[in-house]
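== Fold encoding ==
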Amino acid sequence: MKDRTFDFLKIADAEAHLDQRVNLLGIVTETGIPKITKGKDMSDLISLNKIKEGELCNLLCKILHVSQVDECDWIIYVWDGTDAPPVAIETNLENETRNSSLVLPLHPEAGPLSRSFLRTFPRVGTVLRMFAHHQDKEAIKLLKANKWVKFLGVKCEVHSTLWRAVLMPFSKFCLLSDGHDSVVARQRFYEERIDAESPWGRMPMTCFPWPSRMIETCHQEVPFVTLMDVLADPQGVGKYRCVVRIVEMIPVDLSILRLSLEDPTARIRAFASAEKFLDSMEGFAEKRKALMGVGEDDDVMRPPWIECCLLSYCCNDDDDDDDGLESRIHA
């Protein structure tokens, strides 16, 4: 009997040999654990600014870093130059006033990221954390920094008020070249955003045509920077003009407010003089609701984009400790 151990079939002929062992020769263009997609279209690619909570989507992103958390878990840092949508936050103003220890997380990871690590991130655009649990280790090894990848069947969700993505058991990915048309388009869009001649480049995409006028800075001639610019500044000390949302405002005492500020690139803690920030303590509750986007009969906050000036300074010289960086809002 002829030994057919090393006979290879064409991929098109493999369907005629169901439940049989066959030898195939081809080029791997995607890797993952295949499952039935239930007819869901897996061909439409979206940008991070189009993601929706709880939905499966197909993303084209650049990998910035892959971090192995433990033996079976990874965090993949991805970016495409656009901004993830602002997240609506459940209102909890009364509890915040009574308990100053209630604070929103600054990042999806369990621990803080070092400033030296943050300096490797782009200054504009959301860096999305993609969590992979019990995935094929050999497949994960193919995901390298600075490579553009097409992810198929990724679930996007809001966890603790922050965006994250999850690689599902049926998710797939495909490595793309830097010269791919879609990659070139993404890179061109980013370069247009950071163009020094653009007055809006470093502003959040969803704040056009301009931030709310509830607060205006005295330094209108100073260009805007992002919170990632602030965090990644190697000097560690400086003054910056930013467009942010106030997602948390907690009175520390009668004169100081502790704020959580965010833009599409980062979330930070800041302190502000209550009197200077709100003009006066009269009508504090109403001004606070306006700044944090609380409606009359709404149970969620949708903070408006506002401009502010930040004074950033280091509490210690440890470059691997982002908790040592503090900011204050000033006029």
Observations:
- Residues 1-6, 29-42 have pLDDT under 50 and may be disordered.
